[in-house]
Design a protein that fits this description.
Length: about 290
């Protein structure tokens, strides 16, 4: 089937995240999904080098970026949403339950009073089943809690879906559920919603952690996931999934960038306000996580 859209994938090797640029072939309106801001933890320096490479593609293709779509508040990389918002006057969208994530981390990081956990840092908060138009294309939002309370998947024209941190490639499995507000049972239920899409629906994943000998891949299908996903193929029951997921999560380290990433990502990618010396700081809570 010919698609009226084009999807270009960009891999961030540091966090193994895929950023997607989706555009309507006829109108050239575009959306950027889950863009990454480079961050060197050792020096505390951010860089928009990777975002600039994506912008070079956008400009060469003469695309008009309307939206930056976040699937959730990522814990493994900083969002480059403000780079695209400023450069293209694009709007930033995320799930309405980001407010729960903001409340949790406002408390943990003891953020300034002026930071309101009401989602106002974003331009639009999506509810389950909301629709978003991009040129002649339509994105339908599916709320997919489990990894975090605010996760979303974006279904494009009922032909493709950007699943965020729910399922990974079939040989890798599923996303962890041990962050605040996460739930293995909810993730299972969210994944069933995605697996009820037609067999031929293309699935674009948020990360790939390929086993030895396989290159990074970003695209699979509903049929391939239902038949082969090592964590959620059809013969695996909800109870089996929950016990597998919870015991596996108990063995996982925190992501390397969780502390800096969350502090930016709950602000739609903005840095915290500067101290009275003009420098911006990120916090490390000691023995609190
Ligand atoms: Fe994530």
């Amino acid at each position: 089937m010919t698609m009226p859209f084009h999807v270009e994938a960009f891999l961030d090797n540091d966090s193994e995240t895929f950023t997607y640029v989706v555009h309507d072939i006829e109108t050239r309106e575009a959306a950027v999904i889950d863009p990454v801001l480079d961050f060197d933890y050792k020096s505390g320096r951010t860089s928009s080098h990777s975002a600039q490479q994506i912008a070079d593609y956008i400009d060469a293709e003469q695309l008009s970026v309307q939206w930056v779509l976040e699937t959730h508040a990522h814990a493994d990389h900083l969002s480059a949403a403000p780079f695209f918002k400023q450069r293209y006057a694009a709007k930033i969208g995320i799930g309405e339950h980001i407010t729960e994530v903001q409340k949790t981390f406002k408390t943990l990081f003891n953020l300034e009073k002026a930071f309101l956990p009401n989602g106002a840092q974003f331009d639009r908060l999506f509810k389950d089943d909301d629709q978003l138009t991009l040129g002649n294309l339509t994105f339908r939002v599916v709320h997919t809690p489990g990894h975090t309370p605010a996760d979303l998947a974006y279904v494009l024209n009922e032909q493709a879906v950007f699943v965020g941190d729910t399922m990974f490639m079939p040989d890798v499995g599923t996303a962890r559920c041990d962050f605040p507000g996460g739930s293995a049972g909810q993730l299972y239920d969210s994944i069933q919603k995605l697996l009820s899409l037609p067999d031929s629906t293309d699935i674009y994943i948020c990360h790939d952690y390929p086993p030895k000998g396989r290159q990074h891949e970003c695209k699979t299908t509903v049929k391939a996931q239902r038949e082969n996903n090592i964590h959620v193929k059809q013969e695996i029951t909800r109870d089996q999934f929950i016990s597998m997921r919870e015991s596996r999560d108990a063995t996982l380290d925190m992501p390397r960038l969780i502390l800096p990433a969350i502090q930016l990502n709950i602000r739609a990618g903005d840095l915290p306000p500067a101290d009275d010396n003009g420098t911006r700081y990120l916090k490390i809570p000691i023995n609190a996580l």
